[in-house]
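Mods, move this if it's the wrong board.
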Amino acid sequence: MDRDFTGNWALSGTAVIEGSAGNDDETIKLYTGDSAASEIWYVGIGIYQIFRDKYRSGQGDLVLEYRTGIDVATVEGSGWSNYDGINFDCDGYVQVRISRT
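Not the wrong board. Structure tokens:
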């Protein structure tokens, strides 16, 4: 999915979205303990990869997680899984979360 962060990602802590929506120059700025979760997307059943194309190093580790389900309610009720950097099996719907530890 290629969507703007603004309006489509929920932020926690002091996280902020920088850049302009629609111009493909947005970044999410995370401080230690912050996180940002995507909207829930329907992508279909299959094996998927998550690409990170805009990030800067900072203090703390960046953690990328996902959760998947057969519908929105199932995703919302699921726990988060650490993304291994290779791929993941999706049951139809997926949500992604990034956090800084």
